[in-house]
Each structure stands twice: as structure tokens, then as C-alpha cells.
Inverse folding.
């Protein structure tokens, strides 16, 4: 057994990392700035917003923590075949229902994290220290390695304390400062991919007297070139639905009930809108803003010391519209498990390469779709234009061909690689269909919006430019 692994941050990614490391390390210490009890906490401000674990993520979770998803379902979490049980309106096109043979897990983040934490802390040697901020890394006296972390208690003026470690795992989420800590101690340069996306969310939990039309378990309506607003809707435990409205490109989703209803009327098909508008809110509206997505390439870092790695949003923070973050964290935890055997000295490098490979498909899917929006017109490359055109064609054909819908949803669920969408047999299906509406109008070109809904006019006064708002230099913030 190796000795001591320290995991920074006890969110979803940190907990999964601890679960994996407990098999190899005598002691695993999780350090989090928040007190951990059941329910919402400050360190995970995204928790009130709609979260689903994609099919691939659920498969990984079942391998990493056997029995946990069954326990969550017994507690009321909802499983859904995204091809059959969700209403999908992507690029302004309503995909045909087409079962994909696998399920997602729809559960509140609080229940997911609470049950996972109980399971992880039950493992021998795993400990959680709360109320401490990690503020930097400690270099080993000899050799290029990290020997631990510096922490401060949250009460003001308390002195820094060092926690020694053989392996440090950064799982501090979207606001991670690992790249800066490495630069400060070792002058490490970490290449990063970054895209400013300026996306905002407003969410509320709702009780729907009649459920959703057709027994649907949720809906995803993505912003399009024509309409900057979208909607994610998920049935979760406790008979509630989480309703999250989304706005891109400097627009703001309204933060009050009437405003959220205006967005719903604008983007949702009539039957769905009716079901949602009949709902009773269960709590207030919560906001969230993401100015940028980023992927830190620790696998390509120059002068990277030994003994330190990153997982989850700390390594790759994606656009949440595509619901990939938890799945990426689970896939990276599985990659860490695969690298536990073998030389501990080369483990961090081997893991970082595997963890970067995990991000390839989700990053390509998310950034490819983001670049199709008009606010990123200047950033498009020839490759991204081709991808956007292909994606648009797939979404249009998926309104009439269930096999195309099925394959597309399997890729979005991270079950199949994006290359499945460029196989000759698949491309042949795309060209076979003729006479579909083109739907290529850019936002603001006088198009009435994806649902052809006059409600869009009601939202025009809410279309504020980012320039008129409070500036936020951080990577994320709960509004
Ligand atoms: C609106 C919204 C909706 C989303 N929907 C989905 C979805 O449907 N599906 C999906 O897969 N993903 C979704 N995501 C993304 C998902 O929330 C993240 O990918 C996920 O939370 C990443 O987990 P993590 O453990 O890496 O980070 P986090 O969950 O953010 O946890 C980080 C932890 O680190 C702690 N911490 C931070 N800094 C320090 C420090 N210096 N010292 C000590 N502790 C620290 C925090 O207290 C926290 O416990 C959504 C995100 C948003 C914003």
C-alpha cells in the first residue's frame, strides 16, 4: 500500500477520486472549504440547477460505486432513455423519439453528492476535513515533486497549515487555481483551451399537477442561431421537476417567475409550455453565470512536478448545456483507477494523458455546438463551419429518420464517439432525405424563433448586452 493521497475539494469529482484512491493508498484525506451536511452548500453553487448524469456517466458510476444508482433510484431519482423519454429540440428541430437502449440518471445534485459522500467516507482510511481552504502547493525539499498542500482555516487570521501528501489531486472545480499554484512554485506553464461563452442560467424547482405531456421525463431545448434562450427540464426525486432556463451571448434569463414563464412560452412547444405554466414553484429562482469554458492541458504542461494531478471541472470545465461535466469526472475517475497499477512515479503523467483523452469528445461536441451560435462568428474556423453544417443537417434529418436521431443522441450521451456521425453508412442516410426546411436564419434576422412563437417579442426588452452588466473576472459565480 502507498501512504497518503490528498484530494482537494469533496464535490462529485473529488469524492469519486477518493473512492478510487482508497484501493491503493493507506490514507485518503479529502479537504473542502465547506462544512458538509445534507443539502445545498456554498462551494457547489450550481447544485440547484438541473443536473443529469449522461448514460456513459451512469455506466461509469455503476462500476466505480456499485449499487449507488440503485440506492438513488430507491430514493426517487429518475432514470430516462434520452432518445425516448425526453423531448429534444436541438438547433430548433424536434428530434423523433428513438430509444437508445441506455438511461441517464436525473437526480438533484444535493442527493447525488450526499449519498456518494456517505459511501466514500464508509471506506477504511478515507477522511474528510472541512472548513479549510487550500491555498497552495508545497514543493518537496529534494527533486521536482509536490509534497503536500497549504491550507488555511476559514476563520479569519488563522495560520496556514501544511498537509503532507504522496499524491495531490485537485478537484476544486471550475474555480481551480492549480495552474497558478504550479506557476508560482515551479514556473510551470499549463497550455489551456478557452472559449468565452457568456452563458447564464435561472432555475426553479416546480411541482407540476399533471406531469409532462406524453409521460415525458424531461426536455432539452437548446439555444439556436435564432433564439438565444433555451430550457432544460428534468423530473427528479420528490415528485419535483427542475426547470432551468438558459441564455447565451450576453442575454439574461429573467430571475422572476413571470420572466421565466415568458421564456418558457417562447421556447417550448405549446403542450409542454402549458404543463410547465400550470406548475407551482417549490422555492425561489436561482441564477448562475459562466463567462468562459476552459480545458487545462496538464498532459502537455512544461516543468510539471511529480505527485500532482487534476480531475473534473478543475481540469476541464465545459458548457453545462450539454450536461457532460459529471460524466467527464466519472470517466476520469475510471481512468485513474486504470492507472493505479504500475510505477507510482509515472502514474500522474499516465493518468493526465488518459484524463485529457477523456475530454476530447465532450470538448469537441460542446465547443463545436457553441461555435455555431452567432456570437462566435468571428472565432469559427473552416473545420468548425463544416461541423456546424453537418450538425445542422443531422438535427434536421433526425426529425424524420429515427435511426439518425438514435445515433445522434447516443453520441450526445457520450456512449458512441463523434466519429460515428461521419461513417459512410450514416452520411448516406443524411443525403437520402430531401425537402426538409433549411432553418438557417441567423438570430435577429427577423425570424420569429424556433417555435414560431410570438412570445419572443415579450422578451425583447430583456435582451441586455453583457457590456451593461456588473463585470465578473472569476470563472463562475452564482448570481
Ligand atoms: C447550471 C449548471 C448546470 C449543470 N448541469 C449539469 C448536468 O446536467 N450534467 C452534468 O454532468 N453536469 C452539469 N453541470 C456541470 C457540473 O455541475 C460540474 O461538472 C460538476 O459539479 C463538477 O464536479 P467537481 O467535483 O469537479 O466540482 P464541484 O462540484 O464544483 O466541486 C468543487 C468542490 O471543491 C471545493 N473547493 C473549491 N475550492 C476549494 C479550495 N480552495 N479549498 C477547499 N475546497 C475547495 C468546493 O467547496 C466543492 O466542494 C452543470 C453546471 C451548471 C453550472
Amino acid at each position: 500500500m502507498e501512504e497518503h493521497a490528498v484530494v482537494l475539494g469533496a464535490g462529485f469529482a473529488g469524492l469519486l477520486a477518493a473512492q478510487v484512491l482508497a484501493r491503493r493508498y493507506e490514507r485518503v484525506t479529502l479537504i473542502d472549504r465547506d462544512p458538509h451536511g445534507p443539502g445545498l452548500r456554498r462551494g457547489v453553487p450550481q447544485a440547484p440547477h438541473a443536473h443529469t448524469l449522461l448514460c456513459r456517466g451512469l455506466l461509469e458510476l455503476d462500476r466505480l460505486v456499485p449499487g449507488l444508482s440503485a440506492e438513488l433510484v430507491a430514493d426517487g431519482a429518475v432514470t430516462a432513455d434520452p432518445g425516448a423519454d425526453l423531448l429534444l429540440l436541438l438547433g430548433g428541430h424536434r428530434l423523433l423519439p428513438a430509444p437508445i437502449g441506455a438511461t441517464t440518471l436525473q437526480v438533484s445534485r444535493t442527493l447525488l453528492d450526499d449519498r456518494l459522500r456517505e459511501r466514500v467516507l464508509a471506506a477504511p482510511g478515507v477522511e474528510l476535513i472541512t472548513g479549510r481552504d487550500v491555498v497552495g502547493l508545497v514543493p518537496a525539499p529534494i527533486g521536482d515533486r509536490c509534497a503536500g498542500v497549504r491550507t488555511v482555516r476559514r476563520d479569519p487570521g488563522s495560520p496556514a497549515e501544511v498537509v503532507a501528501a504522496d499524491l495531490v489531486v485537485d478537484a476544486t472545480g471550475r474555480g481551480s487555481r492549480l495552474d497558478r499554484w504550479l506557476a508560482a512554485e515551479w514556473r510551470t506553464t499549463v497550455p489551456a483551451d478557452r472559449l468565452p461563452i457568456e452563458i447564464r442560467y435561472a432555475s426553479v424547482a416546480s411541482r407540476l399537477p399533471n406531469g409532462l405531456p406524453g409521460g415525458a421525463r424531461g426536455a432539452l431545448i437548446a439555444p439556436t442561431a435564432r433564439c438565444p434562450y433555451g430550457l432544460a427540464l428534468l423530473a427528479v426525486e420528490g415528485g419535483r421537476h427542475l426547470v432551468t432556463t438558459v441564455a447565451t451571448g450576453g442575454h439574461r434569463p429573467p430571475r422572476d417567475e413571470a420572466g421565466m414563464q415568458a421564456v418558457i412560452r417562447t421556447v417550448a412547444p405549446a403542450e409542454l409550455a402549458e404543463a410547465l405554466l400550470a406548475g407551482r414553484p417549490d422555492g425561489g429562482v436561482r441564477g448562475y453565470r459562466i463567462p468562459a469554458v476552459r480545458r487545462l492541458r496538464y498532459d502537455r504542461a512544461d516543468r510539471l512536478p511529480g505527485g500532482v494531478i487534476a480531475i473534473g471541472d478543475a481540469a476541464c470545465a465545459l458548457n453545462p448545456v450539454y450536461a457532460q461535466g459529471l460524466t467527464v469526472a466519472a470517466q476520469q475517475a475510471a481512468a485513474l483507477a486504470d492507472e493505479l497499477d504500475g510505477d507510482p512515479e509515472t502514474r500522474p503523467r499516465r493518468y493526465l494523458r488518459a484524463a485529457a483523452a477523456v475530454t476530447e469528445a465532450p470538448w469537441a461536441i460542446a465547443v463545436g455546438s457553441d461555435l455555431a451560435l452567432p456570437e462566435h462568428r468571428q472565432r469559427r474556423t473552416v473545420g468548425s463551419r463544416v461541423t456546424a453544417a453537418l450538425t445542422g443537417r443531422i438535427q434536421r434529418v433526425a426529425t424524420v429518420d429515427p435511426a439518425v436521431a438514435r445515433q445522434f443522441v447516443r453520441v450526445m450521451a457520450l456512449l458512441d464517439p463523434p466519429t460515428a456521425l461521419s461513417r459512410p453508412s450514416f452520411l448516406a442516410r443524411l443525403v437520402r432525405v430531401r425537402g426538409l426546411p433549411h432553418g438557417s436564419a441567423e438570430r435577429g434576422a427577423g425570424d420569429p424563433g424556433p417555435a414560431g412563437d410570438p412570445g419572443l417579442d415579450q422578451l425583447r426588452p430583456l435582451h441586455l448586452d453583457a457590456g451593461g452588466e456588473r463585470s465578473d473576472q472569476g470563472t463562475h459565480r452564482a448570481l
